Amino acid sequence: MSTRSTAKRADALRSIDLGHNPDASLSEVARAAGVGRVTLYSHFASRAELVDAAMARAIGQGNAALDHVDLTGDPGLALARLVDASWHLVDRARALLVAAQRELPPGRIRELHDGPAARVETLIARGRAEGAFRTDLSIPWLINVLYSIMKGAADEVRTGNLTPDRAAAHITATVLAAFTPPGKPVPEPGWEE
Amino acid sequence: MSTRSTAKRADALRSIDLGHNPDASLSEVARAAGVGRVTLYSHFASRAELVDAAMARAIGQGNAALDHVDLTGDPGLALARLVDASWHLVDRARALLVAAQRELPPGRIRELHDGPAARVETLIARGRAEGAFRTDLSIPWLINVLYSIMKGAADEVRTGNLTPDRAAAHITATVLAAFTPPGKPVPEPGWEE
């Protein structure tokens, strides 16, 4: 970060949007944001630094939005509500996610997700304690499964195999089955199709 | 492809390995392969083209190896055998997969997987017909779930959260649960830990 001011970076970021093009160059990002290229370069040393900052900001805002999701009561229903709210955030930030997957070093996306991961972890731990979720696989693995299926849904939407409005129900039905303890029946999904 | 000879490209590719570094530059790839940079550049116009060719080759070889997997009998056990064999291929090609995720256009990795996907599709369709796998989610979605969980396992191995030898069992236990028809019990995994 060195001499670049955090406040100025935040100002620059506020108007920046990768839009629908994860491969947007810094110049294109600057044009779309109505910011001069020189201004943009003065705040971010590289495209990776910009993507990192944009990702951190999007996750921070998303995490704040998830504060309003009711995670009490039946763990399966709570997880369905969390998936529903999270999916809308992922769907809105799809281009940014693709850029982050391409440009950030391994482990960095996960690191940025520490906030939302803590929320998921608490819910999974409660579901395990109440016998709703399986305990024969570790909590970090189950979190990874949820994220992987969500990313997979984003891919399916990008390639046109799934419509965004059906994605949350697909993710929930799949994750609730994956989390079911061996020997217990997979819950019937509440399809609205 | 234009004037570049396919045979010469194949020769160049044979000795090329991204090794453990998905960010290896073309120069580093050339050095590791014992090929001159000029030779490498004469066969591949860009790093993306090299990654695409290396990925196509790895998948072709992997697909041939999967021909020997017995996919008859109980669909769940057949899927476990397929996951086991596929995981070893994914694990060996981890650096290449990361490079492909970063450099190839959306949909290209899936396109390259059309061969292995056809095999999975046949098995899933049989499992559905026999009542072993769920029919309330589409076959393309179930294939995507399998791939996503496999990719997630590769990430977990890369970040040190999972050892490669435990990955196949984790993937199988998770996917078999995800594929279980609603109302039916999740199969007990054959943990060997």
Write down the secondary-structure element order of chain A: HHHHHHHHHH
Structural class of chain A: mainly alpha
By CATH reckoning, the class of the largest domain in chain A would read Mainly Alpha
Q: Level of helix content of chain A?
A: 55-70%
Q: Which fold does the CATH topology of the largest domain in chain A refer to?
A: Tetracycline Repressor, domain 2
**What does the radius of gyration of chain A come to?**
19 Å
**Global geometry of chain A:** elongated
CATH structural architecture of the largest domain in chain A:
Orthogonal Bundle
Strand tally of chain A, please?
A: 0
Span between N and C termini of chain A? 49 Å
- Give the biggest beta sheet of chain A: none
Total domain modules of chain A = 2
The proportion of strand residues of chain A reads under 5%
Weakly predicted, low-confidence segments of chain A: none
Q: Explain this structure to me?
A:
- Chain A is mainly alpha-helical and 193 residues long.
- Chain A has 2 domains: 1-45, Arc Repressor Mutant, subunit A; 47-179, Tetracycline Repressor, domain 2 (Orthogonal Bundle), CATH 1.10.357.10.
- Chain A has helices spanning 6-14, 26-33, 37-43, 47-66, 75-92, 94-103, 108-112, 114-129, 139-158, 164-179.
- In chain A, helix 2 (26-33) packs across helix 3 (37-43).
- The longest helix of chain A is centred in the N-terminal third of the chain and has 20 residues, at 47-66.
- The first copy, chain A, is elongated and about 60 Å long.
- The A-B interface holds A 98, 101-103, 106-107, 110, 134, 136-137, 140-141, 144-145, 147-149, 151-153, 155-156, 158-159, 161-162, 170, 173-175, 177-189, 191 and B 98, 101-103, 106-107, 110, 134, 136-137, 140-141, 144-145, 147-149, 151-153, 155-156, 158-159, 161-162, 170, 173-175, 177-189, 191.
